[in-house]
Amino acid sequence: MTRVDGQGVDSQKNGGLSRIQERNRSLILDAALSEFSKKGFSGATVERIAAEAGMSKSNLLYYFSTKEAIYKATLAHILEVWLAPLKMLDADGEPARELAAYIRQKIQMSADYPQASRLFANEVMQGAPQILPILEGDLKRLVEEKAKVIETWIETGKMQRIEPVHLIFTIWATTQHYADFSIQVKALTGRDLSDPVFFEETVASVTGLLLNGIGLTVPQDGGA
Amino acid sequence: MTRVDGQGVDSQKNGGLSRIQERNRSLILDAALSEFSKKGFSGATVERIAAEAGMSKSNLLYYFSTKEAIYKATLAHILEVWLAPLKMLDADGEPARELAAYIRQKIQMSADYPQASRLFANEVMQGAPQILPILEGDLKRLVEEKAKVIETWIETGKMQRIEPVHLIFTIWATTQHYADFSIQVKALTGRDLSDPVFFEETVASVTGLLLNGIGLTVPQDGGA
DNA sequence: GAGCGATTTGACCAAATGGTCAAGATGCAA
DNA sequence: TTGCATCTTGACCATTTGGTCAAATCGCTC
Hints:
With 224 residues, chain A is mostly helical.
């Protein structure tokens, strides 16, 4: 009857979970991402998550003792992946290449993990009840660091002047739009990022527009 | 005991509601926008909407017989306002002026009606269960019409080539980002659109970036 | 294969919530 | 003032849902 919750009591080995725990937590988190991203926190039900994970509600509650705990774990699980691309912006690279690669990566993320994008958007739109501290802490530091990188590029004349943070917001907003609003995109164009042609068309349009906007030319490989 | 619902039985005059109905429906829709935009459809409760509207739950249900009816009415109420700016894009104007004005207007909307923006975003992210027909109908026609306007500008050499629909998406995504993600914007910059200085800074940055991106120069008045 | 903790589940509970209903209060025309 | 439709509400109900619990089953070590 020991609860496994959160960082869990590491029953046997040092820091690891048992094979069963590993598998079930993973199944739960996948199901939770699907459910939360589709219905939001309030609209999701523990029972549906359990069903999608292939276990009883009671058993799910054995691994995560509350709905909120599932939600937090799901958020934590995707957050690292979600913010990874920005970390790669390299001050020593050429702005055009770096930004083109960043934009492509972000659009790729929107294509590969639209649910994660929507979950994150949902959380922030509700006022970021769970992740506000992260936004104000880690994310803020990261953005300030990368803003400095952009500022350096501007000061060394490598690109046009712009408020770095607004450039970052524009890249986030635009790239994530294709995931979060994919239903609308599909309704208006008949296609979405799952279509490889539309994907490349989107990368080309967005990269062209934004790089052009700061006085850069898209590299031949388009950031690929 | 007659229900007032939807388009309502116009009890007395021709097409009009009684003074009391007018007032209460308006109070309800305001409260509903606040509640739905904050909590989403599932997270919102009829009781809280009623409380915020200053009446009993029962009375609210007298005006809108189901939660879904309130939600639909709220959406319908904001949708027209929300899509209005795009309609003003004028094929006969100069692209720079027209687009600068459009961008400013959209950011102004994000500043003035952030709740409407979030409600709309929420609805679309959940798969647009209520407004999909509108997206595929009226909105699609409108976007196609305006895409043609942009296409004309391109063909007459007034602006650089870009896929018009992607330009529209980028403008939507970016301008609405400042409303939908305002908590994040605030966490990262310490400010949001309610700060007049930040508002103008945002208009300048976004307008500069996007107009530049299609080979245009921002008009002196910045679209104001 | 015995023993014991880890895992799994169905039965159950309490709170929240959307919606109904009958009765009372109010506004207004004659 | 009377009469009637509009408006308003508290009491109430059925369902959904997050979470508890005791009992059963499983898996692994000795």
